[in-house]
Structure formats: C-alpha cells, structure tokens
Write a structure and sequence with these properties.
Blueprint: E1 2-7, E2 12-20, E3 26-35, H1 42-60, E4 64-70, H2 76-95, E5 99-105
Parallel strand pairs: 1-4, 4-5
Antiparallel strand pairs: 1-2, 2-3
C-alpha cells in the first residue's frame, strides 16, 4: 500500500510518500516541503498548493492520503491557514478518487 501523508501549512506544507512492506514496515519513497511566499495573495497561495497536491497524487498514485488535523492552535491566524491547506488536500484527494484518512496529532 502506498500512502501520501500531508502535514498541512500555508507557508510550509510537508509531505511524505511511504510504501507499506511486510511485517508492518514502511519504506520512504519521497518527502519534502511545498512552500508558498507569505507576500503572495491568499488565493494565489492556495492555487499553488492545489497544483502541488494534484502533481503529487498524479506522480505517486497513492492508495490512501492521510492529512494531519490541527489538534490545538493558540494563534488563530495560523490555525485558519493550516485548516485551509488541510481542506484543500482532502478535497484534492477526494477528487482524485483516493481513500483518505485524517489523523489527529497533538502538538
């Protein structure tokens, strides 16, 4: 099974592609960060993220997409940006016909 994991963010959005192996092991296939410029308008930044998510899904053809949920965030502005990036990743996965899960991770 191949999984695309996304740690959403508007300025820096992390991702990793893992292949499941026998015995519960996993092998990293690719990982990195998608960056957008803080000075750019929000719609442009979201559009750039969308293009990158689409490209990752097309390139790696994951069986599942897992997107980290924001469990707690003190800074409301950062929480909103993270939520927007998260929603965009989930929507792109759904549009691609992929199964996806949303994992809560405490920070």
């Amino acid at each position: 099974m191949r999984v695309l994991g996304i740690d959403p963010g508007l300025t820096r959005c992390g991702y990793a592609v893992l292949d499941g192996r026998s015995g519960g092991m996993a092998q990293a296939v690719s990982m990195g960060a998608i960056r957008t410029r803080a000075a750019d308008p929000l719609p442009s930044r979201l559009a750039a993220l969308r293009l990158e998510f689409t490209a990752l899904i097309e390139e790696f053809a994951p069986d599942a997409v897992a997107v980290e949920q924001v469990f707690f965030q003190v800074n409301v502005r950062t929480a909103m940006a993270t939520a927007q990036a998260s929603g965009l990743a989930l929507a792109e996965a759904a549009l691609a016909g992929q199964r996806f899960s949303s994992e809560s991770i405490e920070r």
